[in-house]
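Long-time lurker, first post. I've been practising inverse folding by hand and with some scripts of my own, and I keep getting stuck on stretches where the structure tokens seem ambiguous. Below is the full token string for one chain I'm working on. Before anyone asks, I'm not after the true native sequence, just a reasonable design that respects the backbone. If someone could post their per-position residues I'd love to compare against what I wrote down in my notebook.
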């Protein structure tokens, strides 16, 4: 998993998470998400993309 903290306000994190399957383990797919802190300890999560690595 890769996490990049973006500059500015509000606090934002860009996350790339490899996907897994029960049968094969790590897949060749990953999901890209943007986490935005809207209040202390409260995050809005947006799925930006799902793609083949």
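-- Answer (accepted) --
I ran through it position by position. Result:
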């Amino acid at each position: 998993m890769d996490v990049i903290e973006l500059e500015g306000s509000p606090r934002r994190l860009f996350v790339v998470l490899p996907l897994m399957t029960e049968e094969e383990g790590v897949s060749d797919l990953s999901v890209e998400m943007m986490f935005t802190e809207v209040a202390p300890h409260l995050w809005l999560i947006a799925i930006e993309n799902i793609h083949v690595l």
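A couple of notes from the structure itself: The chain has a mean pLDDT of 94. The two ends are 13 Å apart (CA to CA). Happy to go over any region you disagree with.
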